[in-house]
Amino acid sequence: MVFEDIYQDYWNKVFRICMGYVNDADWAKDIAQETFIIIWKQLPNFRSESAVGTWIYRIASNNCLRQIERQNRMPTTELSEQIEYKPDPDKEWQSKLLYKCIAELPETDRIIISLELEDVKQAEIAKITGLSESNVRVKVFRIKEKLTQKFKQYEQ
Amino acid sequence: MSNNIDFKELWNREKANAPDISEIFAKADQLNRKTRNKIWRGNILLSLTVAVMIFIWWYYQPQLITTKIGVTLVIIAIVVFLATTNQMFPLLAKTNVETDSQHFLAQMIRVKQKQDFLNKTMLTGYFILLSLGVFLYMIEYAGRGSLAFQLTAYGITFAWMAFNWFYIRTKSIKKQQNAINDIISRLEGVNKQLLD
């Protein structure tokens, strides 16, 4: 497995997960970069016992959780400000709103829903978080409900 | 309406251009250098302290064994202090990021608890060794003066040590402990989210 390929394939996925966790583009980029540094260092030791995706997501989510140690930085609950011209401004705003809503959830919920939205299978999410599969299913359902509610509130 | 929000589509809209891969390597390099510098700084400080102590030993040619023991104790105290603050923590804090979140959080909590324990023990040990060392070191030189001189010298030294022990030591232990406890309770809170 070549690091360069992993980097190309996973950069956006890892970045989005970090973004869901902190809702701050610069901070998310930092965490994503730290994640890839670890991946680069550990890749020679990686044995394909688990899927490479699971392995990468584990490192990414643990790196997000590690932010708890940093006392002074809290996830921003502001709408992300980098506004560029996009063909569909309405959708763009909704997308920013989604990230804002996710970053307001409890820490582990942020990770679970981010993985779910990233199309990671629930069995894999279970392996990443250490929860049982049925537990993940229940949690995903509940988080989605919570998210929809939040989203509606802000939309009004 | 909102029940049909396509979260996945909105989620995938967020894209950041992957920074050039060389940025990753540069950052890794920078991190390595930082750690190396830190270890160097620690080592230089250590060597300097030991050098100063050896110089005192050699220059003043102490006659009594108490002075020699005193100097040795002070050296040990400083070495222990510098070694723990500079080099051991990164080793202790080594965590396995490749495990699942639940284990990772538990691991982080354990590391923090260990750090808390070390802080307390090391600081206490440091102050005991240092005070004892200074006390022994003084015997030879204070003994050469008059009784009044001896009383003043010991009086001031003890007052200073008591101040360190009761005020500075307690305060710094408390300060570190508060910071660590705060992180531990946040980690425990997050860990609990998984169990709910």
Any overview of this molecule?
The complex is a heterodimer of chains A (156) and B (196). With 156 residues, chain A is mainly α. Chain A has helices spanning 3-22, 25-42, 52-65, 89-103, 107-117, 122-129, 133-155. Chain A is globular, with a radius of gyration of 16 Å. Chain B has 196 residues and is mainly α. Chain B has one domain (20-195). In chain B, helix 2 (21-60) runs antiparallel to helix 3 (65-92) and helix 3 runs antiparallel to helix 4 (101-142). The interface between A and B is large, with 56 and 40 residues.
Instruction: Label the overall shape of chain B.
Output: elongated
Poorly predicted regions of chain B: none
Tally of DSSP helical segments of chain B: 5
Structural class of chain B: mainly alpha
Largest sheet of chain A: none
Span between N and C termini of chain B? 30 Å
Oligomer: heterodimer
Number of domains of chain A: 1
Q: Averaged pLDDT of chain A, please?
A: 88
Strand content of chain B: under 5%
| Rg calc of chain B | 26 Å
| Average pLDDT level of chain B | 84
Query: What Rg of chain A is obtained from the alpha carbons, in whole angstroms?
Result: 16 Å
**Number of strand segments of chain B:** 0
Give the largest chain-chain interface (CB within 8 Å): A-B, 56 and 40 residues
Encode the helix/strand succession of chain A as letters.
HHHHHHH
Outline the biggest β-sheet of chain B. none
Q: Write the H/E string of chain B, N to C.
A: HHHHH
How many helical stretches of chain A? 7
- Helix proportion range of chain A: 55-70%
Helix content of chain B: over 70%
In short:
Chain A has 156 residues and is mostly helical. Chain A has helices at 3-22, 25-42, 52-65, 89-103, 107-117, 122-129, 133-155.
Question: What layout of secondary structure does this protein have?
Answer:
The complex is a heterodimer of chains A (156) and B (196).
Chain A: H1 3-22, H2 25-42, H3 52-65, H4 89-103, H5 107-117, H6 122-129, H7 133-155
Helix pairs in contact in A: 1-2, 1-3, 1-4, 1-5, 2-3, 3-5, 3-6, 4-7, 5-7, 6-7
Chain B: H1 7-13, H2 21-60, H3 65-92, H4 101-142, H5 147-195
Helix pairs in contact in B: 2-3, 3-4, 4-5
